[in-house]
Amino acid sequence: MIVDYHTHSSLCKHGEGDVEEYIRKALALGLDEIGCSEHMPMPDGFDLRHRMSLEEYYTSYAPRVSVLAEQYRGRIAVRRGLEAEFLPGADDWIEKFIEENDFDYVIGSIHFLGDLRTVKPLFHVEYAEHEIEQLHTEYFEAICASAQCRRYDIIGHCDLIKKFGVRATPKIEEACWEALKAIRAGDIAIEINTSGLRKPEHDTYPGIKVLERARELNIPLTLGSDAHKPEQVGLFFDKAVALLEKFGGGRISLFEGRQRREVRVSRFKAA
Question: Which stretches of the chain are assigned E, i.e. beta strand?
């Protein structure tokens, strides 16, 4: 079995293509499952430049994925997922939205540090060199808190912060270790996200050092391309599957109705 659980269409405002184009690409690649995981709506129009609105979720995303899942049944399993934020100040709203909707899985990702009133975005911004260590520490502390709230099935791109430059100070490593222990305690999976291989850091999220720690803790793994274009579905999955073999014992986590099971991962041959 092989899956891609992290994809975004034009509904996220910075992606391209309709959901069906991503499904067709996954089918052409021979994937067994494809997950749709748009960025969740947020309260009071927060960050609408990068996510669907509440109305778009109910009138477009949810019904569209349901129709396509039925349409492609027997050819490929289409899972309805969500990339949800972890952002203090919006906890109640996020939890209620997740509970009120039927998802096969929910990815918990950190795109902002701080809280709803004093956010520090992790995109389209630069930070001074003297801020970087604290930024890394805050990031892994947020990952830890997101795992402890037991709201998510998968932790997304769990070392994304390295986009600001890799740092390996004792303080950062301790924060990372605590985050991974919280993920293990919550029986949460982490994704091997290949989008970093398309970016200047040219590395998966997480990289080998974090995956080594994840293996020590026996943290379950799954796969996601974080595709924002149909042609990015399954991109670099040959490398991701090799990492799954090395650090996850060749087992991949699959989700349906927010229930996880592990199966043997298949080899991947790019089209």
Answer: 3-4, 33-36, 77-85, 105-109, 112-113, 120-121, 154-155, 189-193, 221-224, 251-256, 259-264
- Domain for residue 271, yes or no? no
State the residue range of the domain holding 37: 3-264
Q: What is the mean pLDDT of the chain?
A: 95
Contact 188, 154 (CB under 8 A): yes
State which amino acid sits at residue 246: K
CATH number reported for the structural domain that contains residue 69 in this entry: 3.20.20.140
Residue 59 lies inside a defined structural domain of this protein: yes
Residue 94's φ and ψ, nearest 5 degrees, are: -60, -45
Lowest mean pLDDT among 140-144, 199-203, 216-220: 199-203
pLDDT tens readout for residues 235-245:
999 999 999 99
262: part of which helix (H) or strand (E)? strand 259-264
Classify 114 in phi/psi space as left (phi over 0), alpha (psi -120 to 50) or beta: left
Contact 156, 204 (CB under 8 A): no
Asked, for residue 269, whether it belongs to a domain, the answer is: no
**In DSSP terms, which residues pair with 255 in a beta bridge?**
260
Residue 271 has pLDDT above 60, yes or no: no
What's the domain count of the chain?
A: 1
For the stretch 100-132, pLDDT in tens is 999 999 999 999 999 988 999 998 888 888 888
pLDDT for position 144: 98
Tokens found for residue 155: 């932790």
Whether residue 240 lies inside any domain: the answer is yes
Q: Is the pTM of this model over 0.90?
A: yes
According to the model, what pLDDT value does residue 270 have? 66
In which residue are the tokens 């039927």 written?
102
Judge whether 82 and 107 are in contact, CB under 8 Å: yes
